[in-house]
DNA sequence: CTAGGGTTAG
C-alpha cells in the first residue's frame, strides 16, 4: 500500500527539507520494516548524506547491526558530496574491516579532494589533498585490496589528478593483467602528465578499445593542445565504427573551438540533433563555447537560450563568448541575468565579465563587479587584477590603473604589467610603457610580445632610435619571436599561412590577388604603415613584407576561393598588428566582404570599413 | 551497491 513512497528514497528526500518530513519518512521506513533491509538502509543513508542531512545520517547509522553495505553507501555519498574529506572520517570510524568497495569509495574521495583543491588554487588544501591521496592508496594496500581492478583504476586516475604521473606509472606497473578500464585510466594519466605520445603508444597497443578508450585518447590530445591530431583520431574512430558518445563529442567540440573550425563544429551539432542525442549541460556548454570561439556569437546565444538546464560553466561560457566578441554591454547584462538566476559566479566568471566591461569601456560597472567578488566569497586571482588594470588603462585612465596597481595586496604578476604596457601603447605613453616593460622583463625576461609592444610604442611616436634599441636588446638576449601564422577554413579544410611564407600550393594566385588588393586599396588612399612591420621581420625580408603578414595571405586566399556572400573567417595566433587591422578594415569596405578574425585575445568583426573592436585591442 | 573519457579564462 505504501510501496510507491518507498520506491526510491533518493529522489524523494531532497524535496523533504523539513525535519518533520524527514522524521516522518524515517518513521515510515521503520514501521514498514524496510529499514531492517540492509539495501534499504543503505539507500536511505546515501540519500540523507547526499541531501545534506549529515547529522541525521550519523544518528541513523550506528543504531542497528553494522553492515558494510550501509557504511559503504554512506562513504560513497560523502565522497561525491561537497566535502569529500568527510568520507575519510567515516572510513576511520568504520566498525568493521573495510572491503574493496570501501576502499574504492575512499580513493574516489581522495580524487574529489584533489580536484577541488586544484580548482580553488589553495596551496595548503593541495598539500592536504596529496597526503589524503597517499593515505588512501596506503589503506588499500594495507587492507589487501590494492589488486581490486576498481581500486586500481581509481588509484591511477587519483595520481593523475595530483599531477603525479610517476606514481600512476608505478601503480600501473604493479598490475599483472590490466583490463580495458585500467589501461584507459593509464592512457588518460599519461596524457594528463603531458606525455601524449606515450599515451598514444599504450592506446595503439590495446587489444580492444571501446568508445571510452577512444574518448580518453582524443581528450588526451586536447590536454596538450594538439587539436588537429584529436580531430584526426576522431575521424579514425568514426571509420572504425565505434559508437560515439556524448563525452567524445564534447572533446571534439573543444578541438573545433580551439582550431576555429566552424564547419566541423556545425557538423557535430548536426550529428547530435540527427541522432536525437539528449542535450546535456556539458554538451550544450561545449556547443556554446565552440560557436563563440568560432565567432558565431549569435548562434552561440541561440544554443544558450534553448538549453533546458544551465550551470555556472554554461553561463560563464556565454558571458565569455560575448566578451571575446566585443559585445561588452550584452556581456554585462548576461552576467547580471546569471546573478538574478541565482547562479554563484566563480573566479572564471569574473574574469569573463571584467574582460567584457573592458571591451565596452564600462569602467565603473567593471569596478562594481570586481568589488562584488568579495560578496560571493571569490578571492581575486592575479588575472582579476590584470583585468582591472586593462579596464582602467584601455579607457585612458592611466593614473587610476597605476594607483590600482599600487594598492594591490600582492606582487603584480606579468599580466598586470602586460595590461599596463598595452594601455601605454593605445594611449601613446612612452614613459609608462618603458616602465611597464621593465617590470615585465624583471619577471619574464624573454617575453617576445612585450618587446614588440614597446617597439610599437616607439614607432608610433616616430622614435626610431628606440625601435632599434629594443631590437638590439632582443638580439643580445636571444629573444625569439614566435612566428605568426593564420588559418582560414574552406569547405571544412583548414589552410595555414605563415609570415612571409610562400608554402601554399596556390601561392601564385595569392600573389596576384595581393597585388589586386593593394591596387584597389591605394585607390582609396591607403598607404602602408611600415613602422611596425619593419620591426616584425628580419632585415632581408623587409621588401614586400607588408603584403606578407600571414593574415593578409589568408585573407587573399579567402577572397579568391570563397563566394561573396560567405564571411571570411581567419584565426591568427598572435595579436593583429595595426597596419593589418587598418588594411583589413579597408578590404571589408572595398571588396564589400564580412571578415571575422580571431586573434590571440579576441575577435574582430570587420564590415563596411569598420571593426567591432572600435580600434582598441 | 563500485571502475576509465568530457564543460567556463589565460
TrEMBL record:
Keywords: Repeat, Transit peptide. The keyword Repeat applies. Residues 525-617 form the DYW domain. Pfam families: DYW_deaminase, E_motif, PPR, PPR_2. PPR repeats lie at residues 210-244, 311-345, 346-380. One of its GO terms (molecular function) is RNA binding. GO terms for biological process: RNA modification. PANTHER family: PENTATRICOPEPTIDE REPEAT-CONTAINING PROTEIN (PTHR47926), TETRATRICOPEPTIDE-LIKE HELICAL DOMAIN SUPERFAMILY (PTHR47926:SF379). This is Putative pentatricopeptide repeat-containing protein. It comes from Zea mays.
